[in-house]
């Protein structure tokens, strides 16, 4: 009886071990297949004849969903289109730009999962991010600031450096990390996207919303009772992002970026999206 029981246990153990080995092989194969998608982004986009760009849909001026067309529009979206045209010329391969909606919190993961080839989504080039993804040269120079209700009496980030203040930001954005350095005594409320963040500010859940000044000016145009104050307190250069170890894709993108600046396309897009924004010197953004 005891021998039969031990034999049964042995058979079950062998089956479990075999299943674990099979699972390990399958998992390794899946990982290898996923990694193979990242071998060479430049070769992949040439082969497919399209670039799958991640762009935002909650950020006025840069990437906002047009409810009439169901398509995102904004400066970042137009930069993606212009780069795609130029990259097509450089490669000699017809290419189209496809768009996938991303947020500050999802953009890197979607890139790592190969759901997108790259993203142009108000992403600041930082040493921490450069450890896991590649960036092009900067295509837009932003700086962090704060948006407050008109008449609040708040004039700069220094006025919020106290335990009674709550500063609202967005999960995954560099601004949430930065603000803790400039107003360490304040509480920080990080929400999912800029729509939620603006709603929280209007509801009185915080005294200010912080992110890059270009994004805040976009929010201010939609919400005239709010204003950007205090100037900028950080430097936030935006870059086009790709998965890590993509030197040829980065090289070709930098070449394309240089070309659209030289031929005047870049400044035309700056004028299109930022001229007339209250409080913003759009000509200072030209290259």
TrEMBL record:
Q: Where is the Solute-binding protein family 3/N-terminal domain?
A: 50-277
Extract the Pfam families matched here: SBP_bac_3 (PF00497)
Q: Which UniProt keywords apply?
A: Signal, Transport
Q: Which InterPro entries match?
A: Bact_solute-bind_prot3 (IPR051455), Solute-binding_3/MltF_N (IPR001638)
Q: Which GO terms describe its cellular component?
A: extracellular region; outer membrane-bounded periplasmic space
Q: Which family does the UniProt entry place this protein in? A: Belongs to the bacterial solute-binding protein 3 family.
This chain belongs to which protein, by name?
Solute-binding protein family 3/N-terminal domain-containing protein
Which species does the entry assign this protein to? Oenococcus oeni AWRIB429
């Amino acid at each position: 009886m005891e021998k039969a029981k031990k034999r049964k246990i042995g058979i079950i153990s062998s089956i479990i071990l075999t299943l674990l080995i099979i699972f390990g092989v399958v998992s390794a194969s899946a990982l290898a297949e996923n990694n193979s998608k990242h071998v060479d982004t430049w070769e992949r986009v040439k082969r497919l004849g399209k670039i799958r760009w991640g762009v935002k849909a909650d950020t006025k001026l840069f990437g906002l969903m047009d409810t009439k067309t169901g398509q995102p529009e904004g400066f970042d979206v137009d930069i993606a289109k212009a780069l795609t045209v130029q990259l097509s010329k450089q490669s000699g391969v017809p290419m189209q730009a496809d768009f996938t909606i991303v947020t500050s919190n999802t953009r890197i993961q979607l890139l790592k999962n190969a759901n997108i080839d790259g993203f142009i989504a108000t992403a600041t080039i930082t040493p921490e991010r450069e450890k896991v993804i590649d960036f092009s040269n900067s295509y837009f120079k932003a700086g962090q600031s704060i948006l407050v209700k008109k008449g609040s009496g708040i004039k700069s980030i220094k006025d919020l450096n106290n335990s009674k203040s709550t500063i609202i930001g967005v999960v995954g954005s560099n601004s949430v990390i930065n603000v803790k350095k400039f107003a360490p005594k304040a509480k920080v409320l990080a929400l999912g996207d800029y729509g939620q963040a603006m709603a929280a500010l209007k509801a009185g859940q915080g005294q200010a919303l912080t992110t890059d000044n270009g994004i805040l000016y976009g929010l201010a145009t939609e919400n005239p009772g709010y204003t950007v104050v205090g100037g900028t307190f950080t430097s936030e250069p935006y870059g086009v992002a790709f998965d890590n170890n993509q030197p040829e894709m980065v090289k070709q993108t930098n070449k394309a970026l240089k070309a659209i600046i030289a031929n005047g396309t870049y400044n035309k897009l700056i004028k299109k999206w930022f001229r007339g924004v209250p409080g913003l010197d759009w000509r200072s953004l030209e290259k």
